Amino acid sequence: MRQSKILIPTKKEVPSDAEALSHKMMIRAGYIYQVSAGVWSYLPLAYRVIRKVENIIRDEMAKADAVEMMMPALLPADLWKESGRYESYGDNLFKLKDRRDRDFIMGPTHEETFTEVIRDSIKSYKKLPLVVYQLQDKFRDEDRPRYGILRGKEFEMLDGYSFSADQAGLDEAYDKQAQAYRNIFDRVGLNYKVILADSGTMGGKNSQEFSAPAKVGEDVIAYTDGDYAANLEKATSKFTGVQQTAEPAELTKKATPGAHSVDEAAASLGIDADQILKAMFFMAKMGEDDYQPVMVLMRGNDEVNEAKVTDALDCEELTLASEEQAVKYLGAHPGSLGPVGVGEDVKILADNYVKVLVNMACGANDDGHHYVNANIDRDFRVDQFGDFRNVKEGEIAPDGHPIKFTPGIEIGHIFKLGTHYSDKLGAKVLNENGRLVDVIMGSYGIGVTRLLSAVAEQNADENGLVWPDSIAPFDVHVIPVNAKKDDQMAMANAIDEQLTAAGYEVLVDDRKERAGVKFADSDLIGLPIRITIGKKAADGIVEVKIRKTGETIEVKQEEVANTVGILLKQLNSQNN
Question: CA dihedral in degrees (296, 302, 308, 313; nearest 10)?
């Protein structure tokens, strides 16, 4: 392929709004073009990478007995209203109406639509288990699209779904998908972790996330040097609380003017922040138009883990209460809230570390006032204890090793949905005993275009992109230093034919540009191997450079194909 015939608009300058390395380099290297905030065009080089990723996905999904199909991106809203996600999905959902005023959405994911097809197509367990998937653009109205194609409003995703008549069928499909995902991420050259994850708006209780450590990762991975890894929403640590033995003192109310935070209250009262009860007030949606006010208590320096609270309450949604709601139920504003005197209409949860405290300070539900010497049972009740806090670095994980944190990019997520959708949408089959049962589902997703950012983040350097050979847009970049010289172009054409015949994809820089421009663009584009044809062309010798390491060797023209094969094989083994 001639470089002069491809749209590759390389740039010298870094875009002013680009923060992530992948964002900077993919724009500079001419891979992507921004149409609008969060909306991107994938130019020829990026499109070639995407197609290679898709082919790897198709290969591994076929091995896992998954069958590809295609659903519409424009979806009637009825099913989403039936499942409850039309409202619960929030502002990220693109909603629109047709000319007859019917509600539609642009699909962010397709659980409902696939469930409808199975509901109307399969009536017997004999047709199950079944795993189907698609590679399709999705649409989510991100509030803050950022980091280039890492977080956008339109993106390509693999979404797959398994349908089984029993739990064993779900477990088998889930395990096969988990292995397929490992194979996919291994083949695209990613360093990744498989972590325990929260299911969020997807529903279901069991899920695993595949996360690629990277500086711009928006998730926090809690991991150890052992075998433990979880995202922050799911991470737990060993309980190390020690029961305090002080005698309960008299409950006393004190004025704390201007003390709205834990640290301000601690300073005002002259006590340690971890002896203060932090009271977070939420509204939990338990069902349609059914909201439960909930107070969550924890030590002052701990942070509430809303995913853990949501799981404990088994609620549809958990949102921080407004100031008006705080005043309505508790009589005070946030910063002065506490459990003393709270009525039965408010459910009180407390983290396990609260259980060992004696003589705590807490908000008095009176603006500008706190209680000191508050004690459980004597002064306030707790309806439920549990692990409701975020873990901290250095705490001991369940595997016995200290917890470390790293940012990570979510690249894949698999869920055991169970009957979350089939029950709501009426997808049932006759089981082997002739009884109607809900279909048991799994959901499996990979951010296809997001993979490009993840790979670039982990492999790019200050000079440009560095693609693993498995997904590079071309295998080899052939650069005649001076395209005006007939001997250099003749050798470039001969090497192109030689490598193409050997099964390699070749990009020949036939542009009449200065050598420095060609080399800079080659580094930006980031193909695995570069072959430079220069002064020694007359002697039949070229320079071969490995983009990843910068190593160079001189090779005779007739040995080029063999050398490229050896080098790519070595690179492939290093990536895996």
Answer: -10
